# Entry
Amino acid sequence: MDLRDISVGFSRAALSLGFVVFGLLLAPVANAQQPASAPTTQTAVATNAKTDLKSSLNELSTMYQNEVQRLEKHQQQSKGLYDDGLISRVEFEKGEKALADARAKVEAVAKEIAAANQPAPELTAVDLDSPSSLAWSTGNSRVDNLIRQYGSQYGVDPYLIYCLMSQESSFITQATSNKGAQGLMQLMPGTAARYGVTNPYDVAQNIKGGTRYLKDLLMMFNGRVDLALAGYNAGEGAVMKYGYTVPPYDETRNYVKLILKRYGKKQAPKQVS
# Structure
């Protein structure tokens, strides 16, 4: 699976907004005599939640832009080496693809920032029942529903699935890495076969297989999200080889760091028996 970049707590912000509105809707009539400052405080909480979301997106945008700058410098050097015949065309084109992917990430988060700056939609009873629906979307309602369906079925936070999928494929159904990983959750052929995925480009099969694999990794590593992500990227064997820590691979460490940054739920280390 290829390294891809990342962001922070959409669900936390959405939940904050949901709880604020939920409290306003259910406040008993007796509270009508509360001081006028109470609604102002609740409004401030909602405003702060939205501000946190925007801040997270801006931070993510900066990370993506820095990565683009790093890759641009690297490609400039590679161009000279390629012209001198010191590196192959395949290696040079691999760098070009990485740069293009990084630029696409910058464009994608710019769209998310623009969406976050739009006036917040009025919450309905349905929204309050599923506040996380306000926090994320792949842009495809079927994919969103499948993430929630299999997340619920296998006991994996749908938002974690979303963050991983964003990093893996940028929600591109036909994505294929140069290492052979396929589909939305970038399943390697061996992993796909292990979980009964006969067509990794089938949206439902891919999400189901990837979610089951992520669930197994979470169970294997006692709920440690960082180790489960490291296992998803580098293989569970690598995590065990390095004493149940994130393997010392730059790609894997960046992968874990970026997804955790977006997921916003860093877990305290647990002892592995």
